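User: Here's a protein and a ligand (flavin-adenine dinucleotide). What would the complex look like?
Assistant: Let me lay out the input and then the predicted complex.
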Amino acid sequence: MKSSTAANIAAVMPSSWSTANRPSVTRFSTCRVAPVRGLSSMKGVRVVVVGAGVVGFSTAVCIAEALPFCSVSLLAEKFSPDTTSDGAAGILFAAEFPDIPLERQRRWFKNSFDHLLDIAQSRNSPEAGVMLSSGWQIFKDVPADKKPFWSELVIGFRSMTDAELKRFPDHKFGQAFTTIKCECSSYLPWLHQRFIKAGGQVEQRKVNSLQELSNAYDVIVNCSGLGSKQLAGDDEVHPVRGQVLKVEAPWLKHFIRDGDGKTYIYPGIHSVTIGGTRQEGDWRLHVDEGEAKSIVERCGALEPSVSRARVLSEWVGLRPGRRNPRVEREVAQLRGRRVPVVHNYGHGGWGVTLAWGTALDALGLVRMCLHKMPQRAKL
Ligand code: FAD
């Protein structure tokens, strides 16, 4: 008998698809990130990662596994289940960032997708909260770009047929594909364990300024999401408020997303996430009952059975909005010392999608810091 996930995939996947047909990729599997050679003289270099969301933990794991000769610590004010990442629907796809070369965005997406696909297809899948998810993205007007940059990186991407679109009479165009859903309430504790296994150390603490860290660490990696507004003094970072509900609707097996990004139904492992809102500059963290009602109505218009589902929980999160994510290195003057800082924040509504890919870039930047470090600090 086919598993329900396998049946799901078959429903939207072209029959010609197989793993063998996918483009070949560099795999960073559920196995450790390969240790970097040739830097062993860096023994004892102290690296600190600030942030315990999906970006912070992904980055910390990549660094701890690839640079076992460094001592890696992670500091954060909030840990799972209290981060923004915890409440994200965690579905993998993305919008284009305006000023980042598409090739780089494609690499971020691909490295994340392939890393999570390995987990989804392994025995770690239930514990890590990572699963394949098939469904439809539908549009009221035919979009100018019918094939987003990630269309060849997900599985079986195709336009929907007229027969399929009949189910959605208000929509003129649609895309069917299989992607991944990564549920951070499971994935973060799983990454946390993986980090500890790689020798990492964790401390709960609010960092009031990067200056505080300048004496105790040789390299600072800032993954503080929305916190970077204050910590990096970055006025470009702003909240994009999102409200969702978790409902009990085990009969729903396919995701449905309106192309405007505001209304979606994402079946997960234990519940179905329905949403949503995208409110730029809105800091309100409480649930708005009027918005909850509107979400149920909008989702009910796409899939009427949603209106009959029992509500399990309601949640609000603030996406770390920024025109482009900031994944770059700088040397900061902190308490009279020049300290390398690697920034990795500002992923907006796509932090789960891009976390592993940007973490690998951040790892590359940390390596660059080590190469440029004076010999004294390496000993
Ligand atoms: P966070 O998860 O916010 O973590 C930030 C960390 O930094 C926390 O540990 C915090 O305590 C710490 N920190 C901050 N400041 C300090 C400080 N001064 N000192 C110490 N620690 C500090 N993305 C997707 O890819 N797919 C989706 O389907 C999706 N759905 C979403 C739905 C909603 C409703 C919302 C709100 C978001 C959604 N997102 C989705 C976006 C995603 O949640 C974010 O992009 C992602 O969580 C950002 O991760 P992060 O690690 O940068 O930030």
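Summary: Residues 1-29 have pLDDT under 50 and may be disordered.
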